[in-house]
Every structure is written in structure tokens, then in C-alpha cells.
Design brief:
The chain has 339 residues and is of the alpha/beta class. It folds into three domains: 6-92, Udp-n-acetylmuramoylalanyl-d-glutamate--2,6- Diaminopimelate Ligase, Chain: A, domain 1; 102-303, 3 Solenoid (UDP N-Acetylglucosamine Acyltransferase, domain 1); 314-339. The strands form six sheets. The protein has an eleven-stranded parallel beta sheet, with no helix packed on it. Strands 9-12-15-18-21-26-29-32-35-38 form a ten-stranded parallel beta sheet, with no helix packed on it. The longest helix has 14 residues, at 325-338. The protein is flat and about 75 Å long. The N and C termini lie far apart (82 Å). The model has no long low-confidence stretch (mean pLDDT 95).
Length: 339
């Protein structure tokens, strides 16, 4: 395998960045500022790590203009160094070529439609009336159930399950173990026992979305569960039935949205945060890690809940006082009325 190689001048011209230093430096890989070796590109996005510039062995560093004065070597100046680095790092990512065709061990229903340029890997199952678009990849062990659509340029990496009535747009990336289109958690109590509410909807996922490993997205009860374009879900996330997530929203690992929640566009949901069912979150909201959203959010901004970590002795004292807050509030109100 031939490794890609660019010069510092190539990278500056390709991404429209200001080059300060030697335009002829060969760049053959990427690394962190602290661990980079000659021939590698690094970045500085957080000025707290500016002191590492002096000792870094990186041939090229992408950084902001205000940090460039501390760099001894060649640099690329960017308004957003992290985004610029991400774009450049993609040039060095090696992705194995997937030849079009269907592996002999795959089981494809005769009523399914597989585009000539698609790749169906070993031990894959494709159900009736499902379609696989041009350039899409079904990795080892994937299962695509009945009545599913996998758009052009999608990749299901391995062991991904699309249960039924799942529609993926174009260029959707789904990581191993994800399950999309399983039954939503719909139950009704009848004479002292549960009966199951049929889940008759599907899941619709827009273009350029990414679904993390072991994440689950339930299909809708009647209407569809919907992820709009460019939604990014981390690993081990639970999306309940009939949830709608707006375009360009990102959710970190172990977060969850309960049934029929509505999350707006350009939102950020922190790790292990939860959104209760039937709530609405407007556009451009940040929910910090471990928070629980218990009421709708109608104004953009950053929101948090929970109590900070402290030593156990202090926590136990404060926990005991939580039970006294109502009585304390009543005394304060009574005192206000007397004054």
C-alpha cells in the first residue's frame, strides 16, 4: 500500500490556508502535537496547549494566527484549526476498496434490488422488496429486513440490523452492532396485564448521517421516527419511537431520547443526557453531559441539570437536606408575608 504524501504548500493551496514557512516540506501522516514526528501534521486548537509547540517535532502545525508567534517551524494559519485539521487528516485515511458484487455466502431475497455497483459482504441477509443503492456497502453479517431502502453511497460497517421499513438517504454511515427499526416500546394496560401496541411506522434517516456502534433507533408506532440530514449519533444511544431529530444535531454516547421527543436543528446533546418523551427542544440548544431534560426548551442556549460530584460525606449531608427544602421554602414565604 502506497502512503499518501503531500507538501506543506500542497495542503495550504488545497484548503485555502496561509502558509508561514517552508512550502516544500513533505507531509506523510498526522499525529498529536505532543507525539508527532518529522513528516507529520499536527494541530493546536486549544491555546492551553501552546507550550507544547516548543517541543513538538511535527513538520507542520495548523493553528490560529494568535498562536503562530510561539511556533518555531512551519505553520498553517486557520480560523478553526480543528476543522482544518479534520479535513486534512481525511487525506491520510486508508479505506479498503470494496469490489461490487454479492458474496457467495450472502442470502438475498429474489424480490430485493441490488444496484450493480453495490457491495454485499459475507453472511449478509437482504429481505424482500429492499433496495441497495449504487456504491453502497453491506459489511459482514449485516441484516437488511423487508421493505428497507439503503441509498447511494451508504456503508453498514458490520453486524448492522435494519429490521423493517427503514429508509436511509445517501452517504449514511452506520457502525457495527447498530439496530435500526426495532419495535418501539409501546404498551397498554388491559385488565392487569400489558398488551403490545403494534409498531406500524418506520425509520427515515436523511443524507450524510452517522450512527454509532450499538446505537438503537426504534421505528414509529404510526408515523415514522425521523433523523434529518447530517445528524451524528455516537455509540450506545437510544432513540425511542416517533422521535424527530433536526438536521446537523449531534448526540454523544449513552444519551437517550424517549418516545415522541422533538429535538431541533444544530443541537448538541452531551454524553448520558436524557430527553423525556413528548418534549420539544428548539434549535441551537446545548444540553450538557448527564443532564435530564424534564420540560420543553423554547430558547436557544446551554442547559444543565444534576448535582456536581463531591466527597461522599458531603453528599450524604446534602442529600438529607434535600428533603428539608420544601419546609424551608414554606418558612421563607411565611416570613416574607410577615414583613
Amino acid at each position: 500500500m502506497t502512503l499518501p504524501s503531500f507538501t506543506s504548500g500542497d495542503l495550504a493551496a488545497r484548503f485555502g490556508l496561509e502558509l508561514r514557512g517552508d512550502a516544500g516540506l513533505p507531509i506523510e501522516g498526522v499525529a498529536t502535537l505532543a507525539r508527532a514526528e518529522p513528516g507529520q501534521l499536527a494541530f493546536l486548537a486549544n491555546s492551553r496547549y501552546r507550550a507544547q509547540l516548543a517541543d513538538s517535532r511535527a513538520s507542520l502545525v495548523v493553528l490560529r494566527a494568535e498562536d503562530a508567534t510561539d511556533a518555531a517551524g512551519t505553520v498553517l494559519v486557520a480560523k478553526d484549526p480543528y476543522t482544518a485539521f479534520a479535513k486534512m487528516a481525511a487525506l491520510f485515511e486508508h479505506k479498503p476498496a470494496r469490489a461490487p458484487g454479492i458474496h457467495p455466502s450472502a442470502v438475498v431475497d429474489p424480490r430485493a434490488r441490488i444496484a450493480p455497483g453495490a457491495h454485499v459482504g459475507p453472511f449478509v441477509v437482504v429481505g424482500a422488496r429492499s433496495t441497495l443503492g449504487e456504491g453502497s456497502v453491506l459489511g459482514p453479517g449485516c441484516i437488511v429486513g423487508d421493505d428497507c431502502v439503503v441509498g447511494d453511497g451508504c456503508e453498514l460497517v458490520a453486524r448492522v440490523t435494519l429490521v423493517t421499513r427503514v429508509r436511509l438517504g445517501q452517504r449514511v454511515l452506520v457502525h457495527p452492532g447498530a439496530v435500526i427499526g426495532a419495535d418501539g416500546f409501546g404498551l397498554a394496560m388491559d385488565s392487569g396485564h400489558w398488551i403490545k401496541v403494534p409498531q406500524l411506522g418506520g425509520v427515515v434517516i436523511g443524507d450524510d448521517c452517522e450512527i454509532g456502534a450499538n446505537t438503537t433507533i426504534d421505528r414509529g408506532a404510526l408515523d415514522d421516527t425521523v433523523l434529518e440530514e447530517d445528524v451524528r449519533l455516537d455509540n450506545q444511544i437510544q432513540i425511542g419511537h416517533n422521535v424527530r431529530i433536526g438536521a446537523h444535531t449531534a448526540m454523544a454516547g449513552c444519551s437517550a431520547a424517549a418516545g415522541s421527543a422533538r429535538i431541533g436543528r444544530y443541537c448538541l446533546i452531551g454524553g448520558a443526557a436524557g430527553v423525556l418523551g413528548h418534549l420539544e427542544i428548539c434549535d441551537r440548544v446545548v444540553v450538557t453531559a448527564m443532564s435530564l431534560v424534564t420540560s420543553s426548551i423554547t430558547e436557544p442556549g446551554e442547559y444543565s441539570s444534576g448535582t456536581p460530584l463531591t466527597d461522599n460525606r458531603t453528599w450524604r449531608k446534602n442529600a438529607a437536606r434535600f428533603k428539608q427544602l420544601d419546609a424551608l421554602a414554606r418558612r421563607v414565604l411565611a416570613a416574607d408575608k410577615e414583613t
